[in-house]
Amino acid sequence: MRPTQTYVEQKFHEYNKLMFSNTLPHIPIRLSNSKTFFGALRFTRQRSPLGKVKYTDFQLVISTLFDHEETEIEDAIIHEMIHLYIYHHHLHDSSTHGPLFRRMMSDINQRFQRHVTISRRLTDQEMQSATTTMESIIGIANHRDGRILLTRCARTRVFEIHRAMKQMSEVSDIRWYVSSDSFFTRFPRTTVGKLYVIDPTLLRQHLSDAKPLQLVLQR
After folding, report:
1. Nearest to residue 62, comparing CAs of 44, 42, 82, 89?
2. CA distances (Å), origin 52, targets 45, 47, 48, 90, 109
3. If you average pLDDT over residues 151-169, what whole number do you get?
């Protein structure tokens, strides 16, 4: 999944209320194509004549260059929000990821079942995905109420998810495609067959260059 600006803004507001008691300021959110970071908090550091330090002009920057699991994107946003909380409230920590940051991170992980970390190294596979075309395996089905459903499937779960969809009485005409259209990366790659409603016209537009995928199921 590659996050959109709307997605990051929604998550920021959600977590501000849920984890930070709405004490964080609303700050600009910007998307980047950086290879050097996943998330970053930008700000201006000002020092008064008396030596007092003030932090202003905060910006949350999220890189969309790599394809991540949705939970990883959420944790990256929370990581930067912890930084924002510390700087905005003028709290002292011994370093960027000092004891205070670590205590807040540990508390959030425990209370909300998150997996926020100090840092995250990009894998060789993720680095490769930044310079090559990202292929998505897309499952399309018709709902009995007329809606069109879409799932973006992990490659190792195609057959399992196909069989699960076949068991759904309200779902029919399941077909699979391989697409290089980056549009589909906005849908999290699922291992459990989560289905999304999609506009038929929009779907036809982005499936125009997709290749049909024929599944050979063993009996």
Report:
1. 42
2. 10, 5, 5, 10, 33
3. 89
* Two tokens, residue 5: 């600006």
Residue 92 is encoded by which pair of tokens?
């002292």
* Maximum C-alpha span of the chain: 78
What pLDDT does 120 receive? 56
Where are the domains positioned within the chain?
5-126, 136-213
Q: In the 8-state DSSP scheme, what is residue 63?
A: E
54 neighbors 88 (Cβ within 8 angstroms)? no
| Residue among 183, 176, 172 at smallest CA distance from 147 | 172
Q: Decide if pLDDT at 101 tops 60.
A: yes
Contacts of 191 (CB under 8 A, 6+ apart): 154, 156, 157
Q: Which tokens belong to 197?
A: 């409603």
C-alpha span between 184 and 218 (Å, rounded)? 28
Q: At what angle do helices 70-88 and 99-112 cross, to 10 degrees?
A: 140
- The span from the CA of 138 to the CA of 187, in Å, is 10
The angle subtended at Cα 22 by Cα 20 and Cα 28, nearest 5°, is 100
Q: How far is CA 133 from CA 43, 65, 66, 67, 183, in A?
A: 34, 11, 11, 11, 12
**Residue-level pLDDT at 49:** 80
Positive or negative torsion for Cα 81, 82, 85, 86: negative
Instruction: Tell me which fold the domain 5-126 belongs to.
Output: Zincin-like (3.30.2010)
159: Cβ–Cβ under 8 A, 6 or more apart, which residues? 215, 217
User: 3-state DSSP call for residue 127?
Assistant: helix
